Each structure stands twice: as structure tokens, then as C-alpha cells.
């Protein structure tokens, strides 16, 4: 008998909302860490499923975030039940925290952890905390928000964090746990890993790879328009249609801040970067780290 899924909970998410989820043949589950290409992969899936850049509804409605507590679970399940197209569902939960159904395909997107962390830091300034707490039923604290540490100081602390991955999924231990678990499952036919930098370097090739894995046939003339619609520039230009819903962001455009890699490495000295590599080596296997830090290599 397979082990029960791990329960991942935070103030905003609860993986227990997956319990008893009614899968359908062909379902797609997009499992990523925050700021690692979740919305990008949702958009790619939408383009492959609908085969047009003109999506029939905002991305957050087409691809609901099942774990997010801002929307009642019954409402999310009803929306998914009503969908007649091939479903693609968002989660930030690692694969060991959700049911693994043979009828579904699970997509895990990895991003260099330093870049993910820098992007996460900046997103922190773009979240309407009061609105988030209102939607999730948390008490709104009195007084001004606590002042944050400068980015580099925060990043160095993030590298050294000893957080429990089940409680702080966006910590460095949480990131490495999510990816290590997916990496260990990569030989399973319904688990696919993608790297953010591979998507950046060869978006067309990665989209074709995914279409092939999902058994989706796209007419040749449609490809250029679909690939163009999945670029960072095009998605940022139509940010209101693509950012996560719930009204918890101050600015939709700011959600698509940079889109390129290297921001984390730029902040660190050589000694600080070497310390990051040593810390990462304590948390993940060498073959995963070889692929994570140098995409395109060590896939097998």
C-alpha cells in the first residue's frame, strides 16, 4: 500500500485539499516551488490544450490553484468539475504531498534556487498582506508591517536556513526537498522535469517536448504564434490575464519582474557563492545539483 501523502500547510496553503481529488484521464498537475516558472508552465499548457493565444478565460480560472486557501475548496472543485477541456492544475506542493494517479501527468519545473529566492524576495513587496489575511481568515495585525532586511542580507540568511521543508516550503531546504523528491521519481513515465533555464534558452523546443510527452498534436502553422504567446514579454504585456488570482497582488505587471537568470549569483562574492554550493550539497544529491546548476546536463 502506498504511503499517505505528506501534509504541507502554511497560512495560505494546505495540501490536504488534494485528499480524495477526483482525477480524470489526461489530467496535468503542475508542481513547482514559488517563483520557479509556475505561471509560465501553466501558460504553456494552456496554449497546447487550446492551441490559440486567445485563451477563453483568465489563466487562473483555467488552471486553478487547488491548495490556495483564498478560494473555498468546494468552489475550486466545482470549477474543475465543470471543465470539459483537458485539465491542468497548479500546486506548489511537492509530489510526496499529493496523490500520484497513473491517469495524470505531473510536471515539475526547477529554477536555480538563488534566482528563485531573489524573485521571491521581490514578490514579498508586491503582496497585499492585509487582503491575503482577509481572504484566508487570518487576523490582520495592528500597526505597520515589520521592516524587511536588505536583499543580500536576507539572501545570505536564506542560504543558511535550517527550516523544516514541511513548514517552510520556500526555504532552501524546502526547495531542495521538493526537487530531490521529483528527481528521484523522474524515471516514472508520468513525471516530467523541466528547467527554467532550458525554457528560456529553447522555448520552442521545450514546448514541442512537452506536447510530445502529453500526446498533443499541434498543426505546424500554429507553432510560431503559440511560442510567441509564451514569451516573457508577451505574458508581461497581458499580465492581468495571467497572474495568480485572488486579488492579493498590488501590481500584476510587477509579478513578471525580470524573467532572466543570474540575479542571485550577481549579489554574492565568490566566497559567498562557494558557501551556497556547499550548503546545497548538504541538501540534495550531486546528480540533481549538476542539472540544477547547469541545465541541459545530467538528465538521466
Care to describe what's here?
- This protein is α/β, with parallel strands linked by helices and 300 residues long.
- The protein has a single domain (15-293), classed as P-loop containing nucleotide triphosphate hydrolases (Rossmann fold), CATH 3.40.50.
- Helices cover 44% and strands 7% of the residues.
- Helix 4 crosses helix 6.
- The longest helix is centred in the first third of the chain and has 13 residues, at 38-50.
- The radius of gyration is 19 Å and the shape is globular.
- The two termini are 28 Å apart.
Order of helix and strand elements from N to C terminus: EHHHEEHHHHEHHHHHHHHH
Q: How do the strands of the widest beta sheet line up side by side? A: 2-1-3-4
SS-based class: alpha/beta
* Helix segment tally: 16
Q: Report helical residue fraction.
A: 40-55%
- Strand percent estimate: 5-15%
As a whole number of angstroms, the C-alpha radius of gyration is 19 Å
Full CATH superfamily name:
P-loop containing nucleotide triphosphate hydrolases
CATH C-level name: Alpha Beta
Amino acid at each position: 500500500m502506498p504511503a499517505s501523502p505528506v501534509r504541507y500547510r502554511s497560512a495560505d496553503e494546505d495540501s490536504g485539499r488534494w485528499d480524495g481529488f477526483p482525477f480524470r484521464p489526461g489530467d496535468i498537475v503542475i508542481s513547482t516551488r514559488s517563483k520557479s516558472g509556475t505561471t509560465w508552465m501553466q501558460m504553456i499548457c494552456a496554449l497546447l490544450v487550446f492551441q490559440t493565444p486567445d485563451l477563453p478565460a483568465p489563466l487562473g480560472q483555467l488552471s486553478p490553484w487547488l491548495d490556495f486557501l483564498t478560494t473555498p475548496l468546494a468552489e475550486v472543485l466545482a470549477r474543475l468539475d465543470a471543465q470539459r477541456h483537458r485539465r491542468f492544475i497548479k500546486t506548489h506542493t511537492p509530489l510526496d504531498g499529493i496523490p500520484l494517479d497513473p491517469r495524470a501527468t505531473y510536471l515539475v519545473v526547477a529554477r536555480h534556487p538563488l534566482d528563485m529566492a531573489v524573485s521571491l524576495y521581490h514578490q514579498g513587496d508586491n503582496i497585499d498582506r492585509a487582503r491575503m489575511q482577509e481572504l484566508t481568515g487570518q487576523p490582520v495585525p495592528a500597526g505597520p508591517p515589520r521592516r524587511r532586511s536588505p536583499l543580500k542580507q536576507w539572501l545570505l540568511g536564506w542560504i543558511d536556513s535550517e527550516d523544516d521543508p514541511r513548514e517552510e516550503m520556500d526555504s532552501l531546504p524546502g526547495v531542495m526537498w521538493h526537487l530531490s523528491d521529483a528527481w528521484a521519481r523522474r524515471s516514472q513515465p508520468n513525471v516530467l522535469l523541466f528547467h527554467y533555464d532550458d525554457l528560456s534558452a529553447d522555448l520552442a523546443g521545450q514546448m514541442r517536448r512537452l506536447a510530445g510527452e502529453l500526446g498533443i498534436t499541434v498543426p505546424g502553422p500554429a507553432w510560431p504564434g503559440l511560442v510567441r504567446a509564451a514569451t516573457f514579454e508577451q505574458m508581461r504585456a497581458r499580465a492581468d490575464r495571467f497572474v495568480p488570482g485572488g486579488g492579493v497582488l498590488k501590481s500584476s505587471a510587477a509579478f513578471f519582474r525580470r524573467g532572466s537568470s543570474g540575479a542571485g549569483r550577481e549579489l554574492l562574492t565568490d566566497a559567498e557563492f562557494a558557501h551556497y554550493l556547499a550548503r546545497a550539497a548538504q541538501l540534495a544529491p550531486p546528480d540533481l545539483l549538476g542539472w540544477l546548476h547547469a541545465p541541459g546536463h545530467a538528465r538521466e
